[in-house]
């Protein structure tokens, strides 16, 4: 089954046509319509309804597919409410902060979708100094954020590894206070590394690591990466991160060309299979300076569909995994000014205010329309606090905000 936009023939760049109501693929329709009865009685259509699925204790793969295909506003609201209730039951009403420092856009990778890929020669490359990163982290601690994310493009040379290691050690020591006796919680997001490097980062004091799988579908993964970048390497890295002791985060892009709803459902099942603690995922946004994005010009309908699907992915991941942390990512806000609030309402519980010095933000454009480009870090924090209040949630201050999933001694859930 193609995504609704593709089914409607609305490929990027083509003139908009009216979107027909979303229908399941023939295969899925057959599953939900029982065969003709023995006495030849008329067909009785029995499609499992959204409330029926939501009332189930354990969702199946087919249920996830059915709910990801929903576009009816009332059904979306039912799913949203169920996801919100699951969040409140298995986590809390607190939104946790992670101050985001994009400390370098140097990258050895050449992902076909990403604006800072090494092949994009129009990017002005930068790396913050150790001092600048530690200063930003200290500011984060004094604001009561509790956790910081250090994110960069990918490098795996010894100079960059020991730079990260040293910086993490310094942040741990220099952010200790009465309010944060163990210093800031540190999440790293610096890509594919060797098991030895992961061990070094963990020993230095980082305790969470984000590495997006992007898609678990092998063919799709290969179509959006050069041959040297392999799905198996990423899977091995995720396993190695767990073995090193990290709480592990991953995620996917939503609305990639030729991605189907079945593929996205498989991604959610994968999160459980790999015992993932944190999810960061968002809509794919075509970048004009990339091979994948250069000819794609999404129409308004496509953008709306991608946003809806992004929100449903958050809700379905919440309903299926229950106690993981899920970020309301900036990519949601790039599609809609209220995208992140909507993400919170659909079951997300993490927000990442920007701490990257404003003069460098325009050089860390993974995708166009990235929000908060011109804002100062205080503006960014205030704006996010207002967003949290606007959806009736509490703000988690001076805490690491680890996922409940990572805390439970037996964190395997039995559903499915
Ligand atoms: N659209 C949306 N997300 C993107 N990322 C990179 N490029 C894009 C894009 N064009 C995401 C990838 C990557 C993360 C750092 O940013 O998922 O892992």
Give an overview in words.
The protein is built from 17 helices and 12 strands. It is α/β, with parallel strands linked by helices. The chain has one domain: TIM Barrel, CATH 3.20.20. The two termini are 23 Å apart. It binds 5'-deoxyadenosine (5AD). 5'-deoxyadenosine binds next to loops.
Topology:
Layout: H1 4-7, H2 26-32, H3 50-54, H4 61-68, H5 73-90, E1 94-97, E2 99-104, H6 130-142, E3 147-152, H7 158-174, E4 185-189, H8 195-204, E5 208-210, H9 218-224, H10 231-244, E6 247-250, E7 253-254, H11 261-273, E8 278-279, E9 282-283, H12 300-321, E10 325-326, H13 330-335, H14 339-345, E11 350-351, H15 358-361, H16 377-390, E12 394-396, H17 404-407
Helix pairs in contact: 4-11, 5-12, 6-7, 7-8, 8-10, 11-12
Short description, anyone?
The chain has 416 residues and is of the alpha/beta class. Helix content is 42%, strand content 10%. It has one domain: TIM Barrel (Alpha-Beta Barrel), CATH 3.20.20.70.
Which structural category do the helix and sheet elements fall into? alpha/beta
Question: How many helical stretches?
Answer: 17
CATH architecture: Alpha-Beta Barrel
Tell me, briefly, the overall form.
globular
Look at the structure and give the CATH class.
Alpha Beta
Listing every helix as H and every strand as E from the N terminus to the C terminus, the arrangement reads: HHHHHEEHEHEHEHHEEHEEHEHHEHHEH
Report the count of strand segments: 12
Give the names of the bound compounds: 5'-deoxyadenosine
Q: What labels would you give this structure?
A:
three-stranded parallel β-sheet; alpha/beta; 416 residues; binds 5'-deoxyadenosine; 17 helices; TIM Barrel; disordered N terminus
């Amino acid at each position: 089954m193609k995504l609704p936009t593709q089914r409607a023939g609305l490929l990027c760049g083509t003139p908009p046509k009216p979107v027909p109501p979303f229908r399941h693929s023939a295969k899925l329709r057959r599953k939900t319509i029982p065969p003709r009865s023995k006495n030849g009685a008329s067909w009785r259509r029995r499609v499992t309804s959204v409330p029926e699925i939501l009332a189930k204790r354990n969702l199946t793969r087919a249920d996830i597919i059915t709910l990801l295909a929903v576009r009816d506003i009332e059904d979306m609201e039912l799913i949203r409410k169920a996801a919100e209730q699951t969040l409140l039951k298995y986590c809390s009403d607190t939104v946790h902060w992670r101050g985001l420092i994009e400390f370098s856009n140097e990258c050895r990778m050449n992902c076909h979708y990403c604006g800072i890929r090494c092949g994009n020669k129009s990017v002005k490359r930068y790396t913050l100094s150790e001092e600048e990163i530690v200063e930003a982290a200290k500011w984060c601690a004094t604001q009561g954020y509790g956790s910081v994310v250090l994110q960069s493009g990918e490098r795996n040379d010894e100079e960059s590894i020991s730079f990260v290691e040293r910086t993490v050690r310094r942040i741990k020591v220099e952010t200790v206070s009465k309010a944060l006796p163990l210093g800031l919680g540190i999440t790293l997001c610096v890509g594919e590394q060797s098991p030895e490097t992961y061990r070094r980062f963990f020993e230095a004091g980082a305790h969470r690591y984000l590495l997006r799988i992007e898609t678990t579908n092998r063919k799709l993964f290969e179509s959006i990466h050069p041959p040297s970048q392999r799905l198996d390497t990423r899977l091995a890295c995720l396993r190695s991160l767990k073995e090193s002791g990290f709480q592990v985060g991953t995620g996917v892009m939503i609305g990639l060309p030729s991605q189907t709803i079945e593929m996205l459902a498989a991604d959610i099942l994968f999160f459980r299979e790999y015992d993932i603690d944190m999810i960061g995922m968002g809509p794919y946004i075509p970048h004009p300076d990339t091979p994948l994005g250069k000819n794609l010009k999404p129409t308004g309908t496509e953008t709306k569909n991608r946003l809806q699907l992004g929100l449903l992915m958050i809700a379905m991941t919440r309903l299926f995994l229950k106690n993981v942390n899920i970020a309301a990512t900036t990519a949601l806000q790039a599609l809609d000014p209220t995208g992140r609030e909507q993400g919170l309402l659909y079951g997300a519980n993490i927000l990442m205010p920007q701490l990257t010095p404003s003069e460098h933000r325009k050089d860390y454009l993974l995708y166009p329309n990235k929000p908060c480009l011109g804002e100062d870090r205080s503006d960014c924090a205030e704006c996010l606090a207002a967003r949290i209040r606007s959806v009736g949630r509490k703000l988690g201050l001076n805490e690491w905000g680890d996922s409940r999933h990572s805390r439970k001694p037996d964190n395997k859930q039995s559903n499915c």
